[in-house]
Design brief:
This protein is of the alpha/beta class and 242 residues long. The protein has a single domain, classed as 3-Layer(aba) Sandwich (Rossmann fold). It is 32% helix and 23% strand. The chain is globular and about 45 Å long. It comes from Blastococcus saxobsidens (strain DD2). Pfam families: GATase. InterPro entries: ChyE-like, Class_I_gatase-like, GATASE. One of its GO terms (cellular component) is cytosol.
Length: 242
């Protein structure tokens, strides 16, 4: 069976390794079936996409809507490389699942509007499936309403032309969409459970999502959350395309 590929852009080893472990846990893929490339570490190597069943893009520190003058050389390179990869993935309609940063990249690539209108604090949000979401095979077994962890400085304000809205929330209208038949993006993090979000809060407490002095309070609000459904999306993706 062909492996899947996870593209990561987290510079912190602890965060990058935890993200990879989380994707492996929820996809139930072994290390030899989930390859990883850390985009921030160096140029994206040439990829034989025929060798992969699907591509995941994890979250990270970059915001697609950042002013060009404020983007680092690494961010500019990563955005260019991901954009070129999406050119091919969209053309082929090859299975793709982007989490959080995936909304910014796929949304921008396909002509949507991504800005800071619907930023959400680090929290557990209630996500609601649209009628299209209830009928989509990737959301099979997912309740019409479920809790998911989110925390982002930008979001998709206007869907790309032709994209299908699959899930929404009261504070962020675009929580999940699909392009063509096989390319998906979520604003929430399907790879995070309580332990995962708490670890990430500690790692990124100085990243501007909240005041560092509020770290313990943020963790206190997260730990009672009943977040169980989102990880099924990753398992469904692998079951469908693997």
């Amino acid at each position: 069976m062909r492996p899947f590929l996870l593209l990561s852009s987290r510079a912190e080893d602890e965060a990058a390794d935890a993200e990879y472990a989380a994707f492996r846990r929820f996809t139930r893929l072994s290390a030899d079936r989930l390859h990883r490339i850390r985009l921030e570490a160096g140029p994206l190597p040439a990829l034989d996409l025929d060798g992969y069943a699907g591509v995941f893009l994890g979250g990270g520190p970059f915001n697609s809507s950042d002013p060009a003058a404020e983007k680092s050389a690494v961010q500019v390179r990563v955005e260019r490389e991901v954009g070129e990869l999406l050119d091919e993935l969209v053309e082929r309609d090859q299975p793709f699942f982007g989490a959080c940063y995936g909304i910014g990249t796929l949304g921008t690539h396909q002509g949507g509007v991504v800005d800071r209108t619907y930023a959400e604090p680090v929290s557990a949000v209630e996500v609601t499936l649209t009628p299209a979401g209830r009928d989509d095979p990737l959301l099979a077994g997912i309740p019409d309403r479920f809790q998911a962890f989110a925390g982002h400085k930008e979001a998709c304000r206007e869907l790309p032309p032709g994209a299908v809205l699959l899930a929404s929330s009261a504070t962020c209208p675009v929580q999940m969409f699909k392009v063509r038949q096989n390319l998906y993006a979520t604003q929430f993090h399907p790879e995070l459970d309580v332990a995962g979000i708490v670890q990430r809060v500690r790692i990124y407490q100085h990243a501007g999502y909240f005041a560092p002095s509020e770290t313990d309070a943020v963790i206190g609000r997260l730990t009672p959350a009943a977040v169980t459904a989102p990880g099924r999306l990753l398992a469904n993706f692998v079951a469908r395309y693997g």
